[in-house]
Amino acid sequence: xFFLGRSFQVVGMLMLLEALYFGIVQGxxxxxxxxxxxxxxxxxxxxxxxxxxx
Length: 54
Fold this sequence. Notes:
Oligomer: single chain
Order of helices and strands: HH
Number of helices: 2
Strand content: under 5%
Helix content: over 70%
Number of strands: 0
Shape: elongated
Largest sheet: none
Distance between the termini: 9 Å
Mean pLDDT: 93
């Protein structure tokens, strides 16, 4: 379960980087906010799974 939680955290961080890319390079605020919310939720899900593993 620990590695599953960590992998969710990595995916969440990558989605947050994509949100930054969409906001800066493409200027798409809607996509930026969508990826920001989804990436944050995936990261937080990974944190909860990791906490249960300990």
